[in-house]
Amino acid sequence: MATSINGAPSAGSSNYDRASELKAFDETKAGVKGLVDAGITRIPRIFIRSPENNDEKQDSGKTQFTLPIIDLEGFNGELIRRKEIVGKVRDASENWGFFQVVNHGIEVAVLEKMIDGVRRFFEQDNEVKKQFYTRDPTRKLVYNSNFDLYSTPAANWRDTFYCFMAPNPPNPEDLPAVCRDILMEFSNQVMGLGISLLELLSEALGLAPNHLRDMECAKGLLSICHYYPACPQPELTFGTRKHTDNNFLTVLLQDQIGGLQVLHLDKWVDVPSIPGSLVVNIGDLLQAILCNWILQLVSNDKFKSVEHRVLANRFGPRVSVAWFFSTSLQPSSRLYGPIKELLSEDNPPKYRETTVEDYVIYSNSKGLDGIPPLLHYKL
């Protein structure tokens, strides 16, 4: 039987036991970084994407499109300047669902400390990290490789840790010592930025500034920290397969390695790493809420949760931190769906209502299979 360098069956083996390989990988509690540290030169089959899936083709991302960059300086100042920024947020949200912000109020030094803190966590001794390794989503901090390891068609070439910073923040001692202080500091600053972005989005739709905040879109905050080791065969796998975000809003910090792409007009467009910038994108739940507002303005689903992905890279590690504005698995009976005041015979609802918890449970159960979970809720 043909085997790979790490002893697992090769892609050409007819006796491949995927379940056993997944279990063996998971039980190391060392993640993808553990494979790289072991010196592998061929990636295990559990990471190899399906070659016949045209939607997952690794094109160059070299297009004529450029992701919008919005300068937030002065957004809380004079009315003319704020209206100008609101207009740019509206255009970017309608045409892209993704944009970058600069002069957002968070110092570059804080951004760099956050990236360094995440890197320190993943690069500490594996015996130290193992105490956090779990697949129990109720833990204060969850560290593992691929939340959907046992359900996804192909595992992603990345390791992750995440923790909820709101509405019920962890005790400091529940967080890793190597990144504890910066996690708490950065979460406070990102929460403030997120509230400001939701105000701008509300105004972009002709709503009162506090409308989306009053709907508790900023009640929850989840920090998701990714570590993408260098990959010996990046053409065979993904850092993160294409997906949409199962939240209201995402604020993303990425380092300078690159690899993030967004799907725009059926083309994969690179999201450049601009020093001091943050990437913002609309999530599934915000799309479901806003779809009927958009129908009044332009056309249905213009503010949309856009598919995006991360390419694997021969260089690394790549580090990113995604801040999800969502209560996620926190119990809540609040239902989200199209705003009822705008519904009529000519403007019927496009999505059925759901709680955030139920939506996230469904989204996580299907994993990153390339099919947007929001389709499941479309009427």
TrEMBL record:
Top-rank taxon: Eukaryota
Residue ranges of every copy of the Fe2OG dioxygenase domain listed in the record: 217-327
Keyword line: Dioxygenase, Iron, Metal-binding, Oxidoreductase
MF terms (GO), sorted A to Z: dioxygenase activity; metal ion binding
Pfam families on file: 2OG-FeII_Oxy, DIOX_N
Signal peptide: none
Annotated TM spans: none
Keyword field contains Oxidoreductase: yes
Family indicated by similarity: Belongs to the iron/ascorbate-dependent oxidoreductase family.
PANTHER family attached to this UniProt entry: OS03G0690500 PROTEIN, OXIDOREDUCTASE, 2OG-FE II OXYGENASE FAMILY PROTEIN
Protein name stated in the entry: Isopenicillin N synthase-like, Fe(2+) 2OG dioxygenase domain
Organism of this sequence: Dillenia turbinata
